[in-house]
């Protein structure tokens, strides 16, 4: 099958003509107006560092006048409709603030005060907080560490064939492992310094004001965090990870609000000379990168030291920050969560050492990434390790560049205790036996009987999607609604998850849920013990997985879409062959409306024409080509039109795709439904534009197919949080196609005799007639094109499985050969999208094949070998599987 190439200009279709989005989306909903208070409102006596008037300065630093700033509301999934006592009218009314604008208590008439406003600002901030020192001895003597040490010693004595009662050998080993525990702790622990935070805070003002046009954050969100910090409960900040700069941003924001800095989990790859020391002084503590790996799991001493350190720090009153995705996203869309540090926190809560914590999902987004790009790694080359000189070179390189705007969004804080209490009743009725102190007979709190897939109108998520945000009721009064599918998946061993998913692809009647999707990422899925050595129950696993999924889902939802994301998306998926500035401007207007109705913030404001020009400039000539069209009047730039064209050649297109991908999660469900619809229609919709081909669509069949495709893309997207029904989301998306006019009600048909029906099927199912209009085709085209590169990658990876027939191949070789194959097809023009060769979708396809029990793997001499399972180890079976994957490509 070749990729469908749609030339919309030839068809006379224009994205901008479109009535978009369909009216049904959150109809009647209004965006909370924080409006013009944003950059000018909340600051009492602000001035620009160079003494210009504020308005003039804003005009010079913003791409457009701030006529309609994005709302910057607090987003929460399980907490939508919950207040936590942190939100009130004040927080919802505050607007966006540019952190680079500072104010002091003096008027701006003094030259020195104006010139040195950052110095005065930083001097006036309170940074001297009580950062208690946690003595090493307290951690090393902790029961958890001593128990781990005894276990390690016993194992070593046994390994060496020594007598377990031999005191001399025992004390020699005790001293060896105690020294190691001290070393591990010293390498790990942070050394928060108030002075360093103040100095770095000032330096960051200077650096960021040179590199960035603004660093924007919503005043209400800051206010909520400030209120949360006044409580006795530790705060756990969990940002999505895009850049190394993320490490600095949260601490810097808190410094500006005079909130104590958190300790921040950093990968030990960042423990490099000077920068490692700096990071440690700013609160960084270093952990091994792959906590989930077998090697790290086996190092029980390391695990016990880490867990004890984090637990003691939380007990001592430190706030914590960690990146739940592990590394930075290479694709531009969030990675599925890792459970490592989250399970430490859940452990600490469940064994009673931590009474509660407030969890704050965070999203940070940049017009342009300061770290460069991930082209190299996506092309299959290995990552260049961090080093001192590498960091220095990178800093020198970025200093002379403009990176546009940056935006930080804090999600709504939610209580760990309330989350656990609400979730406990929904998982299998097993006890959390993490602690001996915990009463085993503890009643299951918040026990909500598992419900059948929740009608959209009553699920917490849907409620939040269709209602204004404030005021929000208390969390405790809103029990989480967990659907049946979750309980099923938990009550079965992980191997059965394979069956669930396998069924989904072939007969996807079971609901795929977010918990299943994170299975392979958390705890290594098949282990029966937690990352930190405790025997875990299914309930515990469920808890960590659903908490992780909630955090990532919430963080993604609060992420603001930057101008470069929007323009890269339009150029990648709507105007891949290029278009005029005027058309792109109208398309951006439509996209902005669509984002607004989906309650998504944008990190830009003002006229779309200016936003397009700003984004095109930032994306640069390597990603977007711009030229003035012939006949434009050069003299009057107002009238001048330009031709704007994306560079779709490899490798540049990979970077463009990175920026476009921030919008993928926003439209993922719709894209899945649209992509599922096309193969169910016998005819080519585009040739029936504005006509009515004689074909009917069965709603249930469409949903089943969409569920199958959702299952296939389970490693790409978190489509719904664990408390919501994916099924309902898909139904909502089908409704939107009806509202759009693409589907017209054709009544119910008797499906008793249809070949797919089984005895339990509904007798009648809803059918729709397909009526493609110009505008609906435009939307369908964009959504299907959005998934096309990914589906091509999955299909080509499935084809590559042929190289595994009767043999084993190292996974690196398998991926490399698949990439080469895709690159060759792109070169020949058989495949349209160069980004299909990125390593991420290929890896995810392999993960999916493993989930489907098509492929298995084992590690030998540190090499991971892939092979086909017995069931698929033949050309014929494999071909059938490949055609099944192919059938999802439109
Ligand atoms: O994206 P990576 O893999 O370079 O990792 C970034 C992490 O912040 C390292 O701690």
From TrEMBL:
Low complexity compositional bias: what residue ranges? 454-464
Pfam family of the protein (one): GPAT_C
State one molecular function term (GO): glycerol-3-phosphate O-acyltransferase activity
Native source species = Homarus americanus (American lobster)
In its UniProt entry, what is this protein called?
A: Glycerol-3-phosphate acyltransferase 1-like
Query: Which InterPro entries does the UniProt entry name for this protein?
Result: GPAT/DHAPAT, GPAT/DHAPAT_C, GPAT/DHAPAT_LPLAT, Plipid/glycerol_acylTrfase
Q: Which family does it belong to?
A: Belongs to the GPAT/DAPAT family.
Q: Which UniProt keywords apply?
A: Acyltransferase, Membrane, Transferase
Query: What GO biological process terms are annotated to this protein in UniProt?
Result: fatty acid metabolic process; glycerol-3-phosphate metabolic process; phospholipid biosynthetic process; triglyceride biosynthetic process
A GO CC term assigned to this protein in UniProt: mitochondrial membrane
Gene from which the chain derives: Gpat1-L
Q: Which residues form the Phospholipid/glycerol acyltransferase domain?
A: 235-367
Q: Which regions are flagged for Polar residues bias?
A: 431-441, 503-513
Q: Does the keyword Transferase apply?
A: yes
Annotated region described as Disordered, given as residue ranges:
431-469, 486-513
């Amino acid at each position: 099958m070749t990729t469908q190439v749609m030339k919309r200009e030839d068809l006379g279709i224009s994205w901008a003509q479109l009535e978009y989005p369909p009216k049904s989306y959150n109809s009647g909903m209004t965006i909370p107006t924080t409006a013009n208070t944003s950059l000018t409102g909340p600051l009492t006596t602000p001035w620009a560092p160079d003494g210009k008037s504020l308005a003039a300065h804003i005009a010079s630093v913003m791409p457009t006048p701030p006529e309609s700033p994005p709302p910057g509301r607090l987003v929460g999934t399980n907490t939508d409709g919950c207040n936590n006592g942190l939100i009130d009218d004040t927080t919802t009314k505050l607007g966006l603030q540019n952190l680079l604008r500072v104010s002091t208590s003096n008027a701006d008439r003094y030259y020195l005060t104006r010139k040195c406003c950052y110095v005065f600002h930083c001097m006036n901030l309170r940074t001297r907080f009580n950062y208690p020192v946690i003595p090493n001895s307290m951690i090393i003597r902790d029961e958890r560490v001593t128990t781990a040490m005894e276990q390690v010693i016993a194992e070593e004595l046994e390994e060496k064939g020594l007598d377990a009662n031999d005191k001399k050998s025992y004390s020699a080993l005790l001293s060896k492992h105690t020294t190691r525990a001290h070393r591990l702790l010293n390498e790990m622990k942070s050394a928060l310094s108030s002075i360093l935070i103040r100095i770095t805070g000032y330096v960051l003002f200077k650096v960021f004001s040179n590199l960035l046009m603004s660093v924007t954050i919503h005043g209400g969100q800051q206010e909520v965090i400030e209120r949360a910090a006044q409580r006795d409960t530790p705060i756990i900040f969990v940002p999505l990870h895009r850049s190394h700069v993320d490490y600095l941003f949260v601490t810097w924001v808190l410094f500006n609000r005079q909130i104590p800095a958190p300790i921040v989990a950093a990968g030990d790859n960042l423990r490099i000379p000077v920068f490692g020391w700096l990071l440690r002084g700013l609160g960084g503590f270093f952990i091994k990168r792959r906590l989930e790996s077998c090697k790290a799991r086996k190092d029980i001493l390391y695990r016990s030291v880490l867990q004890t350190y984090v637990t003691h720090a939380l007990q001592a009153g430190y706030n914590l920050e960690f990146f739940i995705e592990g590394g930075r996203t290479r694709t531009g869309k969030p990675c599925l969560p890792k459970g490592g540090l989250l399970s430490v926190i859940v452990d600490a809560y469940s064994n009673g050492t931590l009474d509660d914590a407030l969890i704050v999902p965070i999203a940070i987004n940049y017009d342009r990434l300061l770290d460069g790009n991930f082209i190299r790694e996506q092309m299959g080359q290995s990552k260049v390790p961090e080093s001192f000189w590498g960091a220095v070179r990178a800093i020198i390189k970025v200093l002379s560049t403009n990176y546009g705007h940056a935006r930080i969004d804090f999600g709504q804080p939610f209580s760990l205790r309330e989350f656990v209490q609400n979730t406990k009743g929904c998982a299998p009725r097993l006890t959390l036996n993490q602690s001996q102190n915990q009463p085993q007979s503890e009643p299951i709190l918040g026990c909500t009987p598992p419900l059948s897939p929740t009608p959209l109108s009553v699920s917490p998520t849907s409620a939040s999607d269709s209602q204004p945000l404030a005021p929000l009721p208390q969390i405790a009064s809103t029990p989480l609604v967990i659907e049946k599918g979750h309980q099923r998946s938990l009550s079965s061993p992980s191997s059965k998850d394979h069956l669930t998913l396998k069924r989904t692809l072939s007969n996807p009647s079971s609901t795929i849920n977010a918990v299943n999707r994170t299975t392979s990422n958390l705890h290594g899925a098949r282990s029966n013990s937690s990352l930190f050595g405790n025997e875990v129950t299914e309930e515990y696993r469920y808890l960590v997985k659903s908490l992780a999924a909630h955090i990532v889902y919430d963080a993604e939802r609060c992420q603001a879409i930057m101008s470069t994301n929007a323009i890269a998306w339009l150029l990648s998926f709507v105007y891949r062959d290029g278009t005029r500035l005027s058309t792109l401007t109208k398309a951006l207007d439509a996209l902005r409306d669509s984002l607004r109705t989906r309650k998504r913030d944008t990190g830009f404001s003002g006229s779309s024409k200016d936003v397009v020009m700003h984004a095109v400039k930032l994306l640069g000539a390597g990603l977007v080509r711009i030229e003035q069209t012939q006949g434009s009047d050069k003299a009057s730039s107002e009238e001048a039109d330009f031709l704007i064209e994306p560079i779709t050649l490899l490798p540049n297109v990979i970077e463009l795709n990175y920026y476009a991908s921030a919008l993928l999660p926003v439209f993922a469900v719709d894209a899945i439904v649209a992509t599922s619809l096309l193969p169910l229609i016998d005819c080519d919709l585009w040739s029936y534009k504005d006509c009515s081909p004689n074909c009917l669509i069965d709603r249930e069949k469409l949903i089943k197919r969409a569920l199958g495709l959702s299952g296939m893309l389970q490693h790409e997207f978190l489509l719904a949080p664990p408390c919501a029904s994916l099924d309902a989301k898909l139904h909502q998306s089908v409704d939107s196609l009806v509202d759009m006019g693409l589907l017209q009600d054709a009544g119910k048909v008797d499906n008793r005799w249809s070949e797919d029906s089984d005895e339990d099927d509904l007798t009648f199912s809803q059918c729709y007639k397909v009526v493609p209009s110009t505008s609906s085709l435009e939307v369908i085209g964009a959504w299907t094109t959005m998934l096309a590169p990914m589906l091509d990658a999955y299909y080509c990876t499935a084809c590559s499985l042929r190289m595994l027939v009767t043999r084993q191949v190292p996974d690196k070789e398998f991926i490399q050969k698949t990439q080469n194959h895709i690159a060759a097809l792109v070169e020949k023009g058989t495949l349209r999208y160069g980004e299909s060769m990125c390593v991420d979708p290929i890896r995810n396809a392999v993960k999916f094949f493993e989930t489907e029990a098509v492929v298995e793997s084992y590690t030998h001499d540190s090499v991971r070998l892939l092979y086909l399972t017995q069931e698929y180890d033949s050309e014929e079976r494999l071909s059938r599987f490949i055609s099944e994957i192919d059938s999802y490509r439109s």
